[in-house]
Specification:
Length: 198
């Protein structure tokens, strides 16, 4: 999984780079240099190593709490959807593509769970008893590449104040999930040591 995700990240980076090159013709003349004016008081603050470390710890703590909050909220949402049988209804549209790919339809609900929240989804996918263990691994590779809606919202909450395109990020994550799953399938098929089917 490490190898396939490493390769898929490189491929997605190349693809998005090519798309950006063809869709945006930004000349260097249009790029204005950013100049920052720092007062003498701010320089004194930046030179204070203790203040810098304290600020870094505070900001990282906020980020950790935020990520933990997202995981808890989406775990609760998944539990509500599971108990209300709504998750089962959401999983029905996956039956057709799973049958087309000759994958057991029992993976439909765990896949939807993983698309919503990564940790719970991967746990459910990996826990399904299946003679073709490579199928579990390939689906986990897709979920790990995509990241889930929870992770996408975490990224959005951090990048919302910047000019980064969340649409391009979502497209890249979907693409990475598909490519990672494909690379995992290729490695399992070509290298005997990775073939874990019974």
């Amino acid at each position: 999984l490490f190898i396939t995700h490493f390769l898929s990240a490189i491929v997605v980076g190349i693809i998005l780079g090519l798309i950006s090159r063809f869709s945006h013709n930004v000349s260097k003349a249009n790029i204005t240099p950013v100049t920052s004016q720092v007062s003498s008081n701010e320089i004194c603050t930046f030179n204070n190593l203790g203040a810098i470390l304290a600020n870094a710890i505070l900001e990282s703590s906020k980020t950790i709490i935020m990520i933990g909050g997202f995981v808890v909220i989406f775990s609760v949402i998944l539990s509500i959807l599971e108990n209300s049988k709504i998750l089962e209804v959401f999983s029905y549209p996956l039956y057709v593509p799973l049958k087309f790919l000759h994958i057991n339809t029992s993976f439909a609900k765990p896949l939807i769970s993983g698309i919503i929240e990564l940790t719970n989804g991967v746990s459910l996918v990996s826990s399904i008893a299946n003679k073709s263990l490579s199928c579990n691994i390939i689906l986990c590779a897709f979920l790990l590449g995509f990241g889930g809606i929870s992770v996408l919202l975490q990224v959005l909450s951090i990048t919302s104040k910047s000019d980064l395109s969340i649409k391009k990020y979502i497209f890249g994550k979907i693409l990475q999930g598909i490519i990672a799953a494909f690379f995992t399938y290729v490695l399992i098929s070509l290298i005997p040591i990775f073939y874990l089917n019974l």
